[in-house]
Specification:
Elements (H helix, E strand, L loop, with lengths): L3 E5 L4 H11 L4 E8 L6 H16 L1 H4 L2 E8 L2 H5 L25 H16 L3 E3 L15 H15 L4 E3 L7 H23 L11 E2 L2 E2 L5 H16 L2
Helix pairs in contact: 1-7, 2-7, 5-6, 7-8
C-alpha cells in the first residue's frame, strides 16, 4: 500500500507481528509505545532491541522503518483497579472479564495515536488486537475499533484507517503469519526478544519465549506455539 503507517508497538508478540505486517506493506512505518505504569514494564525495554534487530537483520524493511515514539499515559495507573497496573493477583473480575482489563486503554491508545499520526502525516493506524483467541477485552473487538475509527475521523476531520491484521486469526495463525512475513529469522526474533508475560518475567525461557508460564498471556502464547509447531515440525 502507498502511504505511511503508525504502529501501536508494545514490544509484545502480537504488536511485533503487526509491525512486520505493516513493514511488508507500507512505504513508511513509524512506531508508538505507551508507558502506563504496567507491571510488565520490561516490555518497554524490549522495544528498542526489537527495532534495532529489525533494522539490522531485515534489510528490505530497514529503509521503511522510521521514527519511534513513546508517550507517558500513567494516568491509567492513577485510575488503578487492574492487575496490570496494581499489585494484585490475576483473577477473574466483574462482568466476566479478567482483572487484567484496563478500562479504556486501547481507546486512549488509538486516540493518542491518531493525534500523533495527524502530525506525522500517517494515514494508517496499525494494532495487534484480536478477538479470535484473546482474554475477552471489549476494547480489542472489531466493532469497537470500527466505531472508534469513525469517531476519530469525525473529530479530527481526517481519513485515518485502523488496520488490525490479527483480528480474525488465533495465536497459532499469528506464528504462521510471522513465518510467512519474515521466515525463521522473524520467529527467532519474536521468541528471544518480545515480551507478553503479565508478570514481567524475563528469567524463565520456554520454547515460545520468556515468561512465568502461568499467567493468561503466557498460556495463550504457549498454546498457540504448540499448535503452530504441531503443524510446522
Amino acid at each position: 500500500m502507498n502511504g505511511k503507517a503508525l504502529v501501536l508497538f508494545s514490544g509484545g508478540q502480537d504488536s511485533t507481528v503487526a509491525l512486520a505486517w505493516a513493514l511488508d506493506r507500507f512505504e513508511g512505518v513509524e512506531t508508538l509505545g505507551f508507558d502506563y505504569g504496567q507491571r510488565h514494564k520490561v516490555e518497554l525495554d524490549c522495544r528498542p532491541v526489537i527495532l534495532e534487530r529489525l533494522r539490522r537483520e531485515f534489510s528490505p524493511w530497514a529503509e521503511r522503518l522510521g521514527a519511534d515514539h513513546r508517550l507517558d499515559v500513567s494516568v491509567l495507573k492513577e485510575i488503578g483497579g487492574s492487575a496490570l497496573t496494581d499489585a494484585m493477583a490475576i483473577a477473574q473480575g466483574e462482568k466476566g472479564l479478567p482483572n487484567t482489563f484496563v478500562p479504556g486503554r486501547n481507546i486512549l491508545f488509538f486516540t493518542l495515536a491518531a493525534a500523533v499520526a495527524y502530525r506525522r502525516e500517517a494515514k494508517f493506524l496499525v494494532g495487534g488486537m484480536c478477538e479470535t483467541d484473546y482474554s475477552g477485552y471489549p476494547d480489542c473487538r472489531d466493532d469497537t475499533l470500527k466505531a472508534l475509527q469513525a469517531t476519530l475521523n469525525l473529530g479530527m476531520e481526517t481519513r485515518l484507517v485502523i488496520e488490525t491484521p490479527l483480528m480474525w486469526i488465533d495465536k497459532a495463525k499469528t506464528w504462521e503469519l510471522a513465518e510467512r512475513l519474515g521466515g525463521r529469522a522473524l520467529i527467532d526474533l519474536i521468541v528471544e526478544e518480545t515480551h507478553s508475560c503479565y508478570e514481567g518475567n524475563r528469567e524463565r525461557r520456554h520454547e515460545w519465549g520468556y515468561g512465568c508460564g502461568v499467567c493468561p498471556a503466557c498460556r495463550l502464547r504457549a498454546s498457540g506455539w504448540e499448535r503452530y509447531r504441531a503443524s510446522h515440525p
